[in-house]
């Protein structure tokens, strides 16, 4: 049984994953919902007061426990699922999208998603697709043949495509979405920020000094880059460009999908850009030391805040590490620092 929630003010120093309803700004409430993963632990769904109800930014993973907690949170706000006017979803990863898809079938709640995510949903609905199909070829290109074999042979859970139904409306880049009416109207600008996924959106409320940043800007960790059913050629290049875009806009309070509040967008963007400069430098040093492939370079680097070796990571995180390393090397190629050649389907990097 889920304990009924009460509404409290958000405490950036508290446990951001604790269940509850947290007042983040006037008429904006953060609702953490659980994830069945040790790393992320929870996803923040934001309830924004709308005309006779709520607009929810992201929705959570379609799990029974998360659904019960979301229902309890809405009850604490004097509402229920039938009072949700629409879901604005930052991207199509399961911890953001699938609960909205399920609740729409029951309550008819419109679901809106960035236009750039359409190619990912197209692939999700391909009956011939198997989990890992997009990732194994990228691992082979990185020289990680054994990892690619493990990814192909692992019996990954088959996604329930009914949880990834197409949205009611595609959101175009720079669309302005109005929430509420009259003097209390709130205007959210949807800004396309590819990198984490190809069609990721953030929602900027400049008048209220807020940015609902999804997974693009996270306060404590760096988001994974380009993990999606339909990969792009240069996900890290896209991500860095998107960070620079947000740095060029007005600063705002950061409302992330994972992690506590309390940061500013520009402050955290600067840290993320600096982190990737460090990783680019380390990747280049590994090439200079004799490494030639993404897999070899990944083996020279350290991973997570605990400075793990690549061999310490599980299969999923090893895959992420190798693909992210190759993404860094591809940025160095794009910048003219490295050259790349193809040898039997493997990308070999060297100084330009």
UniProtKB/TrEMBL annotation:
Keywords carried by this UniProt record: Hydrolase
Gene3D superfamilies: Ribonuclease Z/Hydroxyacylglutathione hydrolase-like, Winged helix-like DNA-binding domain superfamily/Winged helix DNA-binding domain
Highest taxon, organism lineage: Bacteria
InterPro entries membership: Metallo-B-lactamas, RibonucZ/Hydroxyglut_hydro, Sec-metab_biosynth-thioest, WH-like_DNA-bd_sf
Domain annotation Metallo-beta-lactamase: ranges: 42-258
Origin organism lineage: Bacteria, Bacillati, Actinomycetota, Actinomycetes, Pseudonocardiales
Coiled-coil region list: none
Record protein name field: Glyoxylase-like metal-dependent hydrolase (Beta-lactamase superfamily II)
Molecular functions (GO terms): hydrolase activity
Secreted as UniProt keyword: no
Alphabetized SMART domains for the sequence: Lactamase_B
